[in-house]
């Protein structure tokens, strides 16, 4: 019996063994994805977005030693228990993956057509001639001009945007059910970025493919996704429909991120308010809310105990503070931009290092 | 039997057409590369010739070697005149080049025949041994390098690393003698030396392979390791390419030019000197024993002929490596 859900991730943890002990890449992440659904995963560098995604296909950079626990099921089949050979059958065939940097993602000395053909031959029953025809179709589909002639070109004969299109063609070549776009547009300039996002969205519709869009940019999420989840330090801190999260963020971290999106209507005297402190580079298993050292609203309980999920059907966050309370003090997104609430809160609080950093930054003349 | 199917006659290209294709080939990037390298080769070969001549001019006195110890000063002068040794430097050099154009470097006093002839007779043996040695070295180097480079830090990597460091550190003749003692004398598996049967080649080829494989191995390991950590390898894995195909079809292909250049350099280095002591140790009838004996007997023409020819061989090998790496790496080959 196949499960109705395409992907079910349950309490997924990924622990890296390093010379200085164990470090959590992902710490107990759970989410689901339906067929044809588009999910955005947002967070800073090191928040565990990519580690979550690469765990699904079991591909890691060389020399990394990891321990993975929990469960990740693709149509009911447990991905984490699969052998390397079984996973090879999943990679490319059922889960397509588009990486961040298109300039280095293709073998520089093999014509792009051959790289597509090679993938098709591994996963489909096509013969060489059939695979070659399909490669041309795919390049055409992702908008490579003069596709038939382009198959014979080497990667460095294409621009970055074109290469990313080729990588998208590679990722969808075997009609995967799930496409993971891992910062797929980050390395591209904004015009090209818009084109690639439009391409990804239309491909998802045409091929009824689900997509996980990993990004640090809410703009990308707003343009492409149905749902979004925000990750911080290896955990999901907020999830919900894109409209709900963007207009009414409940977690202070999400609110902080949204506050950082530059907006046209605000006059130039307005300064961006960075989230104080830094994202942890090595996450260890410590009690309390991971965001508490940087949070404007954190109290003792936040530092001591892990926050529960405030459960809403379509919108939920993991925070001790009452979302309503946050909303009343800081309002919606618009009021988050004003700083009164934050300052008052700061004065009444014990000051950790992160907070003082923030104060220093605020005083800095620019 | 009747011929029912006559093969279509191959169209004979007109001279004009062939002329055009040849010209255009010479103008292609590869053609230009070959021309450029050939020009360099001529210059280098000329320098080799010049150096040999200058050394011959200033070192030793052929007349005193020829003449009997009792010869008078006048007899010596006459001999010098008859050999043309009283002529100015440039005249002698010109005559030397003239002779060289006919591949004549003089007569071997020791063998009483043209020195070139004596060298030609054995050069084939040296080239054969060098080719087999280079193949052995490349096999050892590439297999070891790939095994180590795809498993950095593993036990396999450490053992291969140890072997390759040994290969770079030990003296070649010592390894040769060691192999003779173990495999020929103690185990009696192969003959100690000689060239009467192919098994006589095993030990010298193994020695050459070991001595020259170490560097190829280290270079291969390093470039494979580097290549494996490139993004495209991760991306290729993410589309489910089998590991072996990834290593063989992508990684090895991309490092082939580097490995080949190293292997070619090791091959050239054999002619540059390393093969000769091994030939002597294994009594292989190549240039090594010939040159050593000739040097002992102050037989300059043979040494000269040998140096000229090995110089030409080194230049040829380098040219071949350049062309091969061009053909291997598509990025070096514009449309």
From TrEMBL, chain A:
The keyword Secreted does not apply. Residues 7-258 form the ABC transporter domain. Residues 326-366 are annotated as: Disordered. The keyword Transport applies. InterPro entries: AAA+_ATPase, ABC_Ni/Peptide_Import, ABC_transporter-like_ATP-bd, ABC_transporter-like_CS, Oligopep_ABC_C, P-loop_NTPase. Coiled coil: none annotated. It holds the Pfam family ABC_tran. It comes from the Bacteria. One of its GO terms (molecular function) is ATP binding. It is a peripheral membrane protein. It is found in: Cell membrane. Keywords: ATP-binding, Cell membrane, Membrane, Nucleotide-binding, Transport. CDD domains: ABC_NikE_OppD_transporters. Its main location: membrane. Residues 347-366 have a biased composition (Basic and acidic residues). NCBIfam families: oligo_HPY. Belongs to the ABC transporter superfamily. This is ABC transporter ATP-binding protein. It comes from Plantactinospora mayteni.
